[in-house]
Structures are given as structure tokens and as C-alpha cells.
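Quick sanity check, Aconitate hydratase A:
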Amino acid sequence: MAFDIEMIKKVYANFGPRVEAARKLVGRPLTLSEKILYAHLWEGNTNTSYNRGVDYVDFAPDRVAMQDATAQMALLQFMQAGRPKVAVPSTVHCDHLITAKLGAAIDLPAANTESKEVFDFLSSVSNKYGIGFWKPGAGIIHQVVLENYAFPGGMMIGTDSHTVNAGGLGMVAIGVGGADACDVMAGLPWELKFPKLIGVKLTGKLNGWTSPKDVILKVAGILTVKGGTGAIVEYFGDGAKNLSCTGKGTICNMGAEIGATTSTFGYDESMERYLRATNRADVADAANAIAAHLTGDAEVYAEPEKYFDQLIEINLSELEPYLNGPFTPDLATPISKMKEVAAANGWPLKVEWGLIGSCTNSSYEDLSRAASIAKQAVDKGLTTKAEFGINPGSEQVRYTANRDGLLATFEDLNATIFTNACGPCIGMWDRVGAEKQEKNTIVHSFNRNFAKRADGNPNTYAFVTSPEVVAAIAIAGDLGFNPLTDTLTNNKGEQVKLDPPKGDELPVNGYAVEDAGYQEPAKDGSGVQVIVSPTSHRLQLLDPFAAWEGTDLKGLKLLIKAKGKCTTDHISMAGPWLKFRGHLDNISNNMLIGAVNFFNEKTDNVKNELTGEYGPVPATQRAYKAAGIGSIVVGDENYGEGSSREHAAMEPRHLGVRAVLVKSFARIHETNLKKQGMLGLTFANKDDYDKILEDDAIDIIGLTTFTPNVPLTLVLNHADGTKEEIVVNHSYNAQQIEWFKAGGALNIIRREAAA
Ligand code: F3S
């Protein structure tokens, strides 16, 4: 079904020569991250050495993975690219759109009904363009990728920030927006700033209650949510070799929570065991043949301070279990301190739910270790004080765990087995009573715990920890319970202690599955029809954006001058809007509704210059569009920070905004604007932000000679009849100017495909 051994062999055939060329070029030993990056330069170009954190570089990723919420727009764009099939192996995974409520047997059919047209669309578009399709219930994207596609030394991109999970199998795997995925699937290079490198040296061996999760919980405490920005985190040392492959996946997964570009580990025996257990002996054999290239050079790990931009050391033998939270994943508290820290902060001690799952911690090993705690509870006469919910990571994990009695053990503690899907981790949890917004505590094995993330209740205090600690604390029903030292009272009134968890890295009797939920695409998809109903509320085929008219833009209305922070959430909110991710016109009704209007300090309330009335941003912009009048959005610093969702660029483009002018951009959003054919401009003098008045008519001059590194001019025609000229900068290179002229990068891809 799955992996493409021929593609992997091709990557490996080039790997050694490229690494050797790169080593000569930079004139020193290489880290693993550098080896993978240099081995994946576009067109094998190893003639240039790159500056970390400075140079933008074109790469050729080996694979693309997409989850159902983001795949819709990525594939709607790909359909416009005019390609008969994807240029690199790609997969779609249906995991985000399944609500957890009563258990998989009821929840999965309900989701299949509710989101039928989205799943049918993703299935047919995958079938047509040669994309592997994993049906709802097949599992969570990153677990399925680890089990089937990840391979040591590979490079992949995915339309989900936790794509980084595949670092557990020695990949450089990076989360991107759908437009980037579309480019790579269309056979184009993928650009990334050459990352900085953070080394984490692991010594010793985990023991007792400590698990791989505690490594990343500790690292998050050290680096905080921003500490990994722009960097690859590379783990090495004897301690790394002592970790299981899925445990390494857990650590890499939560690298997203420290803002890291990705995280990775060198190839070792744990990876080889995992590859063989998941039916990929040929990948293991191929990796063994070039094993020396699939880890950092010995000199690097002997003197890491010379080769990494930052170095952290952790002794696994001394590591303690952690609980991170509430409301942020970097607030790390060792389990021995939780009782006093929680009391000091007024965190509710009574635990209402223990949730095990998410792409972070839903492997067989995770379930087996947590089940060993659940089994002890039953054997020792304990009942659980909190409710229990389990989301297995994949159908293969679920089937095997069920065969081996692990799920029955959880059910003995009245656990609900939810679908093999994201569920509560993405807020798709119909939690009874959450609407009352009561202050309460939950513990889970997920990665994120922002306010409202799991159940929509801003007063839910969520703590992130390992599956085995989730199990122990849920049984105790007490956030301050420390299973290393504390006892519990059983049904005979005796004091009993839980022994440390035991688990199997891999199932003793091997993995098994009857129907993994995979749909192989048609060999020739040219006859496959992709059906999107014209009356659908959830899906809409894209029309190409119009090309530039060839003149300067004159008389633009000011749609909004946004004040202060304006992230992609302010521009295109998530939450209830998630269901419109495949329908550009409907989701455009959330455009900029979170941005604060500079002139009245209100959100979603701007002046319609045609009527003089104030109203919602989307409706005002629709009025300009209907009148055939262009508009401009003005913003502050770091405009468009946050997620890489391209909706934040496509919505203004769709509704007729012609330019976004800001003090500074978040890089990915600026690129997204360019890709969609929008003008993204910055004030040459940031104080000119103050010159923009609410009733201005604005001209953009210089477009007929639009050239790299040459600023443009804005004429502000004020309502009192006066005029001011200001200079605005842009960062368009020659190719990006062509995107602007063509009305978007996709129009060029399509034109080339038709030629
Ligand atoms: Fe899904 Fe949560 Fe992972 S939403 S992909 S399980 S972070």
C-alpha cells in the first residue's frame, strides 16, 4: 500500500555523494540536520554553502502529507495547477473532522454522515491525482506517516504543524501551508530559510515513571514556546539510542510547541526495529547500507558546542516526570512539586478527565504503558476517580492493542475508546457540560493546552503529561498525586501504591490489522470525476484570480487600518470556521473580523466609504467588490504571524483587496500574499502609518515598472483635498513579480502545464 521503496533507494543513492560534497564545501564535519538539508537541495545543487538563519534555499522534499482540514484548500489549489498527477508521493489523512463523544462505534458513523461531502471530495481528488487516501478512522496523520512513510534521512513537508513527528524516524519533516504543499506536488522547489541548529545531548537511561514525553516537557520548560524558532533541534548521545522510535516521535512532535522548524534523531537500532516491525525490512536494509550518513559526524557529537548554535544537555537517568500547563505547554512542573505549585496558583486539584491519545502519544508503547497502570488499579481494588478517554493513533495500533487486551484493560476502568483520530486534541470533543464553563482540571497526553483547545471551555485547566502519568492521576482524581511516593485507598480501605509502568516498545506478537483504512489511488486517474456540488456550503471549486490589469492602481478605498497585533487568527479565525476551510467564499465571511480598527478601536466595524455607514469588514469589502472598487488593508508590526494558513491571504484576494501595507510582515504570510497575486508592501518610514486617514483614496504608483529592489509610491488623496506621497518597499524578486502580474503563482503553474 504504502511506502515507495524505489523512491527511497533513489534518495539513498544520492545521499552519500551529496553529503561528501557538502562536507567539502563547508569545510568541517556535518550535523545530521545539515546532511539531510544538503542532500535535498533542489536539483542536487551542492555548489553553495549556506548561512544558517540567513539564506533562503530551494529544497526538493521527498513526500507531502495533508490532513483533512488543510488538504481541502491545498487540493483545490492543486486542481488548478493543470497537472495530471502529483510529482512526489503524497497522502491525505482524515482525522480532524471527527467529533469525540460517545465512542468510536457511534462517533465515526456520525462524522461520516456529517462530513460526507468533504470526505468524498478528498477521496475522489486523491484517486484522480495519484494521492494515497486514508479514510476517516484510519488514524491520526502523524502516527500513520510514522508507521508507513517516514524513513531515515528523508525530507517531507505536511500541511500540519506536527508533521515534525516524523523526526522520530530520522527525517527532516516540516509543517507548511497548503500553497507550499501545492507547489511541491506540482513539481516545484520549496523554499526555506536555512535553519539554525540546536543540539540536545541525551545521556543516561529513562527509568521508573519517566518517559520520552518528559524529555520534551523539560526541553519546553527550558526553551519556552519561542525558543526553537527558526531552528532544527537535533537530539544525540547515548541517551538518544536508549529511546524507542515512537518515543523519539513524541519528542520531535512537541518540538512544534517550542516553535522549532523541526526536530530529528540519527538513525539507530530502535529505528531499525521499528521499520522491521512495521513491515519495512527493505527500508531498514537500505538505511543500514548508508547508516554512517544517516547520523551526525562523530566529531560533531564529540564537541557539540563547536557545531550547534545552542546546546542543551539532559541526563535521562535523573529526569523526573513533568506536567506542563495550564494554558501553555512550556510551563513545566516536576511531578514532585505539583501539589504545592497547584495550591499556590489556585489550580483546581480535582481532575475530571484523563485523556490518552493525539499524534503525540498514541503508539502501541504508549497504550501498553498506560494500560499497565490501569491493570494495576483493577488488580489492587482501585476505581478511577476521573473519566477516561482513549484515542488510539491508528487502526493498526487499535487493532493490535485490542488483540492484546490493552483496550479491554482500559474498559475495565470504564474508559471510552474514541475513534482513531484527533478528537479532543483539536477541540472536536462534545464534552458533556462544557458549555457551563465551570473551572475544572483535565490531564492529557496531547501537545497543546491553550485555553479552550480541548473542549471550548476557557476555564478548563489542561495539563500535558505522559500517558502513564495521565492514567495514574486520572485514577487518583487528584492533580497533586505523585505516584512515585503517594498511596491510594482501595475498596478494602487499604493503602496501595502503583508500581512503575511497564510496556512493550513493540507488540510482542507483532502488529496486526484487518483493514488499515487505506485507499490506493487509480493508476490512471484521468477518467476520475471530482464532484463538488455547486450548492455546497463546505466546498467550492476555485476560479483563477484575475491577472493584473497592467496599470497603476488608483482610487483604492481603505478597508481597515489594523491596530496592534494582527495574526492569521485575526485575519481568518479558526474554531467554528474550520468547517468552511474548503469553501473560499463562505470562509471569507470571517475576513479580518478579529482585527482592531485603528479609528474606533472596535473589531469587525469599519466605515463603508460608499455609504458613510459603519459595518462588518467582510460585508464592507463585498460592497466595494460589487461596485468594482479596489481596496487596501493597512497593518502594524509582524502582520500575519501565527499559522501558515493561506486562507488569510486568499480571502482578501477573493474579496477584491488589492494590497496589504504594513510596518512589517511575518515571513510565511508575506509569501502567501505573493503566491496569491496580492501586493504585500511595507512602509519605508514606519511613521507613515500615521499618515493614513480613514477617508483616504489611495493610488499605488510604479507598478508598470515594478522591479526588484525598487520601491513604489503611494499617493494618499485625503478627504480635504490635500495629497501626500509616501514611499513603500517590497521584497518581490523577479519571479514573484511575475506571480503578481499573472494574478497568482498558480496561474503561472497552470500556464506552464498547458504549454
Ligand atoms: Fe491531530 Fe492534535 Fe495531532 S489535532 S494532528 S492529534 S496535534
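Posting the structure with no commentary besides this: The chain has three domains: 5-318, 322-490, 553-754.
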